[in-house]
Every structure is written in C-alpha cells, then in structure tokens.
C-alpha cells in the first residue's frame, strides 16, 4: 500500500542527494514534531547537513537560501500559493487535503497520501509519510514507533498505511502489541485523575474518584501496568460506563480498550504517554525538547515529563473553567475564549468527551488575533467536512482555514468572530 507513495519518495530522495543543505520546516504538534524527528534522523544518517524549524503554519515566513532544499512537513499541501513562491527545490511531506495546483519555481516532490489514492485523514499522518520518505533515503525501519506517535497524536486509526508501519515495527522488534488498556502508566489513582485520553472527568472531583475506586475494589496506589487480568477487565468496564455517563463519543471506547502499544527502544515505552509528552512539549512551545525525546536523547526526558505534568493540569483547569461557557448553535456548538493558553487540546477534549454529538468550534481571542479550532467525530464527518467549512467560512471573513474533516482550524480577525460562527453554522447545516 505504502508503495504507492514511493515514486514521489524516491524523487524526494534524489533532491536530497543533490542538495548541499536542507531546511526542514515542520508543524509544532505531535505529528509535526515526530515527522521532524524522522526527517532529521534520516538526513543525519544520510550525512546531509540540515536545520529544523517549527512553524504554526505557512502563514509564518519560510526562510531559506535559493541553493538550499526546503522540506515542508505536516504542511504545504493546502497552501499552493505559498509553495509556488518558494524559489528553491521543495519537498512536501504532508497528509492534509490537497488544495489547488502548485506551480513550482524549481523542482518539487510532493509526498501526500491523498495524491496516491490513500487515506490521509485516518490512515497515514505526516510522520507516517515522513517514514516512507526516510526509508527511500536509507534503512530507517527503527523509526516506525515515531511514525506511530504522529498517527496517535493526530487521532488517526491504526489501519491502512498506519497498520503497515505498525506491522514493520512489530516484525522488526521495535514495537510490541499487548492486550490491555490504552491509559498512561503510573499509579491508578493518578492516571485516572489526570487522564486526558480518555478524559474521565475526575480532575477536581476527588470524591467521585474515591467512590469509583471503592466500587471496583482496586487500590488506587497500585501501578496500572501491574494490575491482574481480572482487575484490568473490571477497570475497563467501569471506565466504559464512566465515559458513557459523561457523554463521550463511542469511538473513544474502541480506542482505549483492547490493544496497547509498547515501544521497545524509545525513552517512553507507553505509546499514548509518549505521544502526549511530545504533543505537550509542542503546546508549551518547547518543540525541541519533544524532538529530542523522539531522537532518544536521555538528557531531555525529565524536562519533557515535567512539561507534560504541568501542561495537562493546565488543560484540565481550562476545561473546568470553560466547559459551561459552550453555546448552542443550530448545527454546531461553539465556545469563545479570551487569552486561553491553548485552543486545540481544549477543543479536542470537549468535543470528544463532553459535547460529542455536534461539531464544536472553539475560538480563542488572543494578542489581537482569533484562532479557531473546529472538532467533530468520525461519525459526524460522514456528512460534514470541517476542513471545507473552515476554509469557506474563513475566506468569507478574509481569513484562512483548512485542515482535516474531523479536526480543522482557521485564523480570522477578532472583529469577524460572530459573522464567522454564523457562516460555520450555516455551512454545517447545509452539509448535514
Ligand atoms: Mn498532521
């Protein structure tokens, strides 16, 4: 299946070979950081000098010299105008919806599952696409766990291209699949209290948590990885009930029960935990620490874990603060926040666990700008394409938007928030 991407990956490898210096630009989320790590490692092994920079998107400036090779990872496919203006050889390693036509000034290799007839929404992320690129450059099969980090980070499924990468990782001994629950590692009480994937709504609700633990008769001080088979199954059932009670989307239940991935050679062996650590490093603007963890640099592990612990508490606090401010539209729900530290994790959690039956649009007005995160579920995405909705509604108010069917975003003027939300609601009603 991934063979379909190999023609472009090979073309990209040729561009690397003839270049003298590579400028890598990647996104600052878990998928972008892990894609950046895979690209960096493969260039390092290939013996090519390079530099990695993290961008929030292509509305930020791409700086390069024209004799250098520019690699855009987890971005590029949706910005044909920007890419067409880059006066250097370009490689795009992306999985976002392809928009328009790129008229490259020099050579271009465009690796994107959508262009090869593959699914880039659920079945291959930027890190997975980067993995295909890396393996066109040399043998980089040991980077398969890092490719999975991006897929989990982008809430993809381990099917299609992702399943193929997972299998390569398992066969070669870099990943182990175990039965069990996809929760963080640690003491049961703490894991349940601070869990964001799944979000269990125990934060600040000590009494409910005590009651939950006494009902299932498991000591909260037990290490979750050391629970017996019976205890694990009791816990799983209780968590499923909890999720249903708080209104979670059914899809999250399949995600956390059944299979658990163990990374054999990474600094953090629990796959979901590794993903969140990398993700939060990005959210805390400490991308290079996340990158270092993906590159197995032990010196940064403690720092990364510290960022992760601090940041998840911040998100849980934000959820408490904003969850009751969510407003009801016709075909959407929306939340307008001011000066929140981050938008996307709050949007993801609220839309998957508390308000899961309609698209949720979260706007954060900060520093004179309005950043929008739109989220829905696979079920809603059968009808509503949020990438399209964000693009059209943002264009209407002079902003820019795009992304994926289930997770999209936009940047607009704070003055147009109301008009934008109306248009989003209208477009969602039209599609549903
Ligand atoms: Mn991505």
Throw out a few tags for this protein.
inorganic pyrophosphatase (n-terminal core), Diaminopimelate Epimerase, Chain A, domain 1, five-stranded parallel sheet, alpha/beta, binds manganese (II) ion, 432 residues
Structure overview:
The chain is an alpha/beta fold. It has three domains: 160 residues, inorganic pyrophosphatase (n-terminal core) (Alpha-Beta Complex); 140 residues, no CATH class; 106 residues, Diaminopimelate Epimerase, Chain A, domain 1. Helix content is 45%, strand content 17%. The strands form three sheets. It has a six-stranded mixed sheet. The protein has a five-stranded parallel sheet with strand order 2-1-3-4-5. Strands 6-7 form a two-stranded antiparallel sheet. β10 and β11 form a beta hairpin. The longest helix is centred in the last third of the chain and has 22 residues. It binds manganese (II) ion (MN).
Annotate the secondary structure layout.
Blueprint: H1 6-18, E1 22-27, H2 30-46, E2 50-55, E3 69-73, H3 80-84, E4 89-93, E5 108-111, H4 126-137, H5 144-153, H6 160-171, E6 175-181, H7 188-194, H8 206-216, H9 229-246, H10 251-256, E7 257-263, H11 271-283, H12 287-294, H13 301-322, E8 327-328, E9 333-338, H14 344-354, E10 360-366, E11 369-375, H15 378-381, H16 386-396, E12 400-403, E13 407-412, H17 417-431
Parallel strand pairs: 1-2, 1-3, 3-4, 4-5, 9-10
Antiparallel strand pairs: 6-7, 8-9, 10-11, 11-13, 12-13
Helix pairs in contact: 1-4, 2-4, 2-5, 2-11, 2-12, 4-5, 5-6, 5-11, 11-12, 11-13, 13-14, 16-17
Manganese (II) ion binds at residues 31, 74, 95, 125-126, 154.
């Amino acid at each position: 299946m991934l063979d379909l991407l190999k023609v472009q990956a090979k073309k990209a490898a040729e561009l690397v070979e003839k270049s003298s210096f590579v400028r890598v630009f990647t996104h600052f989320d878990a998928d972008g950081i892990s894609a950046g790590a895979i690209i960096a490692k493969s260039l390092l092994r290939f013996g090519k000098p390079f530099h990695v920079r993290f961008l929030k998107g292509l509305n930020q400036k791409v700086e390069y010299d024209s004799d250098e090779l520019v690699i855009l990872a987890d971005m590029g496919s949706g910005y044909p105008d920007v890419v067409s203006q880059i006066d250097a050889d370009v490689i795009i390693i992306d999985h976002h919806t392809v928009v328009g036509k790129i008229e490259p000034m020099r050579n271009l290799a465009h690796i994107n599952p959508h262009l090869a007839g593959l699914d880039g929404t659920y079945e291959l992320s930027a890190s997975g696409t980067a993995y295909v690129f890396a393996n066109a450059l040399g043998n980089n099969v040991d980077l398969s766990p890092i490719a999975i980090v991006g897929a989990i980070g982008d809430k993809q499924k381990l099917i299609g291209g992702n399943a193929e990468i997972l299998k390569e990782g398992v066969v070669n001994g870099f990943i182990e699949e175990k039965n069990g629950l996809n929760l963080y590692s640690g003491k049961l009480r703490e894991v349940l209290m601070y869990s964001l994937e799944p979000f269990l709504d125990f934060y600040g609700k000590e009494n409910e948590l005590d009651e939950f633990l006494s009902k299932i008769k498991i000591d909260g001080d037990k290490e979750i990885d050391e629970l017996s088979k019976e205890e694990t199954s009791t816990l799983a059932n209780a968590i499923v009930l909890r999720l249903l009670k708080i209104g979670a989307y059914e899809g999250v239940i399949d995600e956390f029960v059944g299979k658990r991935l163990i990374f054999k050679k990474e600094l953090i062996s629990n796959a979901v935990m590794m993903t969140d650590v990398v993700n939060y490093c990005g959210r805390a603007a400490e991308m290079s620490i996340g990158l270092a963890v993906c590159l197995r640099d032990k010196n940064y592990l403690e720092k990364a874990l510290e960022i992760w612990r601090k940041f998840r508490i911040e998100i849980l606090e934000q959820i408490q603060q904003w969850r009751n401010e969510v407003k009801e539209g016709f075909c959407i729900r929306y939340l307008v926040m001011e000066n929140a530290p981050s938008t996307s994790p709050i949007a993801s959690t609220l839309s998957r666990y508390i308000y899961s039956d309609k698209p949720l649009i979260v706007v954060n007005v900060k520093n004179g700008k309005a950043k929008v995160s739109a989220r829905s579920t696979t079920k809603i995405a059968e009808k509503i394409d949020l990438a399209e909705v964000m693009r059209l509604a943002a264009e209407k108010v002079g902003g820019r938007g795009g992304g994926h069917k289930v997770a999209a975003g936009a940047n607009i003027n704070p003055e147009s928030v109301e008009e934008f939300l109306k248009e989003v609601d209208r477009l969602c009603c039209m599609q549903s």
